[in-house]
Amino acid sequence: MPLVHGHGHRRMSLKGGNTNDESKAEQAGGEDETGNRNHSTCPTQADAANSGGARSGKCGVKKPLNPILGETFTCYWDFPDHTRGYYISEQTSHHPPKSSYFYMAPEHGIRIDGALKPRSKFLGNSAASMMEGVAVLRFMNIGRFLTQPNMYARGILFGKMKYELGDHSYVRCPENGLVADIEFKTKGYFGGTYNAIGGVIRNEKTGESLYELSGMWSGEMVVKNLLTGKKQVLFNATNAKHTPPSVRPLEEQDERESQKLWCKTVVAIKEQNHEAATDEKTKIEDQQREEAARRQKDGVEWQPKLFRRVRSGPGGSEEGEEDLDWILEANIDGPTPDAMSQQILSVAPIVNGQTSHSLPPSQPSTQPSQPQQQNGPPSNDLIDFGQPSNSSVPVSSSTGQAQQQHSQSLLDLDDQPEEPGHPVKRVDTYTSDLDEFVDATS
């Protein structure tokens, strides 16, 4: 699956565009000086929450692209198995900055709801974005709560610019009582290497360490069973083919969408025109101040366009998800992947040809979804690992079998066959339990 939890809703305001070579450079440490990371005219303003600086080339001007309230960004992925993933995000707070985001790959039963609350720090020749917030990953009808590593930009004043992920990310699964503490290690001044990770998986109740994680997040990652001492490759990103996101062209975007909103500012920055960049940026900021003044005068409280308050508290439909604050204003509960895709596309324009005026009326389902039998399900790999086309992994719709497998261990990696193409039993992802969580530790 794409690295949504890793970079979530992040404005890459230090760079622009998206070519294959630069994507590879970014994955292997983010080294780049001039990169264009998107196929459209303007760089992706993909994080309406991160108020970083914008720099063009070795001597480009630097201007902070502060997000504005209600700024939105959408994109989608076309995966090698002919399925799609959809992403929707909106800036839901200006002070402090906070953005809410949603991702789903309906055919694969993956959904992520998240909130990103970055804080900026300047450390001499480096800048850090402290990625506070939480993401809720739903996979196989199981909820996992994730936090994100922080991001560091080295060489912002002199030298070669390089991105690093640093500090800790936590993944907690209440259903099986396990928690993973993953450390993203930054390179030391005199030694070390880029992109290294280390970590441990523990029993949350007993504190017992069960597995140890090591390796490179941009290369091979290894898991070690601390009871048996056996090591196994957890994931190897070396030969994985990155699937870049696609964004609608500027002419189809609304004025509040990130790329169109900041296009003139970013063009001026890339042209090193400090005066024009300042003027365009000021226009956006002045407009935001005027809107805030009108709301205050009229006694109107601002509400997001695409997200609603989380229904938390005991018995609430989103109990345990209070830290999200906001969640997508739609019920994505269709009986089939196609139905879910249509529900998602009714929320906001995402794919080419869609505009805010062409959206179909949203008709969220209020009936419990029924399990669906699939003929010839797609591969469960959202990243192309170069395997033969006949190596698709079947999806089991037997909830009882999956729950029995659950009770034994969801992380018993030593018992999993390593030969490619072996079936993996999974819970059907189209039932009414899709969005429900039960925290077994509370």
Give structural notes:
- It is built from seven helices and 17 strands.
- It has 442 residues and is α+β, with helices and mostly antiparallel strands.
- Strands 3, 4, 5, 6, 7, 8, 9, 10, 11, 12, 13, 14 and 15 form a 13-stranded antiparallel beta sheet that branches. It has a two-stranded antiparallel ribbon with strand order 1-2.
- A hairpin with a 6-residue loop joins strand 1 and strand 2 (62-64).
- The radius of gyration is 22 Å and the shape is globular.
- By DSSP, the count of extended strands is 17
Helix-strand category? alpha+beta
- Mean pLDDT over all positions: 74
What is the chain-wise order of helices and strands?
HHEEEEEEEEEEEEEEEHHHEEHH
What is the helix content? 10-25%
- Report the portion of residues in β strands: 25-35%
Number of helices: 7
- Low-pLDDT ranges: 1-61, 362-442
**Ends: how far apart?**
30 Å
Biggest sheet overview: 13 strands, antiparallel
From the spread of the alpha carbons, the general shape counts as globular
Whole-number radius of gyration?
22 Å
